[in-house]
Target: MFS transporter
Amino acid sequence: MVEEKKVPYGIITILLIGAFISLLNETLLNVALPSIMKDLNVSTSTVQWLSTGYMLVNGIMIPTTAFLIEKFSVRRLFLVAMGLFTIGTITAGVAPNFSTLLLARLIQASGSAIMMPLLMNVLLTSFPVEKRGGAMGIFGLVMIFAPAIGPTLSGWLVEHYSWRMLFHIVTPIAALIFILAIFLLKDHKEKVNIRLDLLSLVLSTIGFGGLLYGFSSAGNKGWDNPIVYGTIIVGAVSLILFIWRQLVLDQPMLEFRIYKYPMFALSSVIMIVIMVGMFAGMLLLPIYLQNIRGITPLHSGLLMLPGAILMGIMSPITGILFDKIGAKILAIIGLAITIVTSYFFSQLSLTTTYTELIILYTLRMFGMSMIMMPVMTNGLNQLPGKLNAHGTAMNNTLQQVSGAIGSAFLVSIMSNRTETHAKDLTEKAMSKLTGHPSPDAIAQMKQHIGMKAVVEGINDAFLVSVGIMLIAFILVFFMKRVTPYESQKISNTNEKESKKVLKSELE
Model:
């Protein structure tokens, strides 16, 4: 009989706090970008690199985390990741110019990228399958709550202090976690004789980096821009070569054979679809609130805060429910709520009340709290233990890429539909004009038409997100509850191979 492993709660607590502040930092800066533009005298397209660069480094680094987790101990990896994050945070807080600030953000991102897959892998290996839901619920709390409170905290700080305070408040926390980790993280790992394939690293960097940059630039530059479609094509070709390279290597950097496990493959597809649809709320609502309704960044953040708090409360509860009833029922209920609330968001007007928006957003977050973690955990549960690192790295990479695709796709729909609505509304308004209106009346009419057209464009993008979510809703009906050992029966029809996999896993 195999002795049950003692759960390393001390290690998990340190990793959770580290992951929380690194994720918080990801959304903390968005509200402060206008202040940074003014203070450091840079343009909108330049300052945007603080977000784009952060995302690119994450997208490039995350595929390597499976190799890093296999090669190095949790202690060593976490200290490097937290060390890089702390150095980046300190440098950003005192940056004299934009170039230094951007470099500091990229250093932060290189540490942050390691943190989430590392935490997820420790949770998967520390808890038995029947208790993973509760553990992953806590992980979900970090993953969802930290980025959700970022805009509210950022809005308040920027309104009362300098944007540098965003880094100054994180610095002592990051430094304290780093010092605690030196003394408290004591895990031991046997030396593993694997090496990083440099060609895989190059292909992965160009592949994922090209796709992320191309799709994230499409919203601003347009799909017909050579830089946009050029980087997407180069990224796609490099990614195909990267996948081929991984399939011929004995020790791949990222194991694509995990897709032979059907529930993991299904969960990946559902996650991609959900991420693309989910960005409607995260991206379009702030545009509506701040650009159309003139609501301040702080009040926009406060509007989203009840949803973030509810999602944070629900995440551990969802984890416990997952252990009891599985992912399917939770995902069906969660997606149904998300689809209905997204549809109501496609009916926005220039007079939709603040209270209505809070209720709708909070309900949408409530629905989403039942989707992400259960679907992801159910897929990871089917993988044998030795493939956990590859599963978490793959999931995190797909989230980055599908998030960029979702943003670009929905922004382009919003932009195109806004132009169409502007033309239609202008034609209708002109046909109703009588006499010779004053220039002021014409200017006022144009402003009203412009705002109305943007709202209709946002509504159309939300409606498309409803269609995307419906695809995920259909797919979740095919989900089955699995464990790693049951998965061998599902994915390996050859009994001999099944025994061999089971034997190697037990060893």
Summary: The radius of gyration is 24 Å. The domain at 1-195 is CATH 1.20.1250.20 (Growth Hormone; Chain: A;). Confidence is low (pLDDT under 50) at residues 485-491.
